[in-house]
Amino acid sequence: MEAEIVLPRELPYWGVDLCPEDRPGVPREVPPRLLESAHWLEPEQQPIEGLVLRHPGRARPTPVFSTALPPRGASGVLRRVAYKVPDHRLSHWVALFIADRVDVIESLPLLFFKRLERRAVRAGKLRRPASQRP
């Protein structure tokens, strides 16, 4: 069986990006509109408590951000270094990627000790704290 050779110009969808009227999604492509129920264009700024890392090109952090896990240990140092580099550089994202992996490695001992503690509680060798009792 011989393969049929089709030239790109013979394909029905060839060049659809040349003329917007030929694109099926064009009638639906409209700029986003504001919702009537929104009472603001931008949420009010969350209060900054503690260390919040931000990109050097921004005057302030985004309106809403997380402070649940502040940067700590070696992964925190890597994150601080990453945020000193502009985010259009590959080194910024590679440093953040490595910091995530280092954070996982740093949290393994804590996970191990929590698991040991749960086993000790089940075996009756250790009492649960009052706050965790049913």
Oligomer: single chain
Mean pLDDT: 79
Shape, principal axes of CA atoms:
extended
Major sheet, described briefly? none
Residues in helix, %: 25-40%
Map the helices and strands.
Layout: H1 73-82, H2 90-123
Structure notes:
There is one protein chain. The termini are far apart. The mean pLDDT is 79. The longest helix has 34 residues. With 134 residues, the chain is mainly alpha-helical. Helix 1 packs antiparallel against helix 2. The chain has 2 helices and no strands.
Structure in a nutshell:
With 134 residues, the chain is mainly alpha-helical. The chain is built from 2 helices and no strands.
Question: Which short descriptors sum up this protein?
Answer:
extended; 134 residues; mainly alpha; single chain
